[in-house]
Each structure stands twice: as structure tokens, then as C-alpha cells.
Amino acid sequence: MSDDFSFRSETLLRRLRRMQVLVIHPDDSERENFLAHLRRIGCRVDSMWPAPSSLPEKTDVVLFLVNRIHDEGALSWMATSKDIARIGIIAFETPEILEELERLHVHGVLSKPIRLFGVLAALTTAISLARHEARLNKRVASLDETLKARRKIEQAVQIISESRDISEADAYKRIREKSMRSKQSIASIAEAIIAANGI
User: Fold this and answer.
1) Is the C-alpha dihedral spanning 100, 101, 104, 109 positive or negative?
2) Does 126 lie in the same domain as 37?
């Protein structure tokens, strides 16, 4: 049991060491201590202030101070950056700050003054949540594409059925056979049939 736990811990730390972490926080002693701690964990760290207008390339995790000093929209890219783990750093729990955390879809929160205990847990939890969210988004996108393809196939089946005066089962069989002969997907054949009929 302990060997298994040790292996998982090693894997987790190895994963963290591959992460590119961006810290968006004013340049002060608190930030310096925080950056030093992240480097001790093994993360590759960059820092900046104020918040950039767009996400720097190859960023995996963003830890950012949430306050009302940011220009409106300064962190708007954060809400649409699907592949990054986001950890908010807050000094207060005002309704405005809580709304901002929700708007930016954070995966974790650290409170100021930043205590080094809990940073590793916040990082690993946020990364895990972000990856889970990314997998769900991919699955939703895949299901959406499948649903669109199915609708096209149903439409093509109806076109063939009505134009050839055959059953929908026979129409689908013909489309499937054409798909196999041409080595194209059934959805591609359905699209071609729909396009040919000007729909």
C-alpha cells in the first residue's frame, strides 16, 4: 500500500515539474516567497504584474490575484482558456470577489496572506479538476459531432427513401454500402447526398 502511494506521489510531483506556472501578483516580498516555494516544489514559474491582456503561450497553471484593480476585461481571456488550471488568490470574500471567481471559472482558491502550507494541495486539485473538465468538454464536443452526423444521415436516408421509393432501412443500407465501397464515412456520404439535393 505504501509503495503504491509513493509511486502515485512521485508521478504527481513529476507531472508538476512539467507544468509551466504563471503567477499574476504585485511584485512584493509575499510574491517572492511564493515563487521560491513553487520552485522548490519543482514547477517552472513565471510572474508578472499587472495582468496580461492575453494568455502567454505554453501556460498550464495560472495563480492570480483577484481584486478590483484589474481593468474590466483584463482577465477576460481566463474565462475562455479551456486547457489551463486557474487558482484565484483573494484577500477578501466580498460578493464582488466571489462573483469574479465564478466568472473566471477558477479551480481553486488561496487566501492572502499566502500560507505555503496548502499550496501543493491547491495546485494538484486545480490541475486534476482542469483535466477532468477538459476531458468532459472533449466528450461533449464529440457527442455533439455524433449527433450532427446522425441528423445528416437521417436526412439523407429520407431523401433516398423518397426519391427511390424504398424503405428507410433499404435507403440506409445503400448509403452504408456506398460508404464501404468509397471508403468514406457514412456522414460524408450523407452530406454529399444532402448537397446534391440542394438542401
Assistant:
1) positive
2) yes
| Alpha-carbon distances of 178 from 18, 59, 184, rounded to whole Å | 47, 46, 8
Reported as a pLDDT band with limits 50, 70 and 90, residue 80 is: low
CATH number of the CATH domain containing 71: 3.40.50.2300
CATH number at residue 186: 1.10.10.10
75 and 121 in a single domain? The answer is yes
How many whole angstroms separate alpha carbon 26 and alpha carbon 171? Answer: 66
Tens of pLDDT, residue by residue over 23-58, are 888 888 888 888 888 888 888 888 888 887 778 778
**Lowest-pLDDT range, 24-38, 64-78, 134-148?**
64-78
CA proximity to 65, closest of 22, 125, 12: 22
Given the C-alpha cell 502515485, which residue does it identify?
Answer: 8
Of 85, 65, 15, the closest CA to residue 44 belongs to 15
Look at the chain and report how many structural domains it folds into: 2
| Pairing, β 44-48 against β 85-90 | unpaired
Which domain does 59 fall in, by range? 2-134
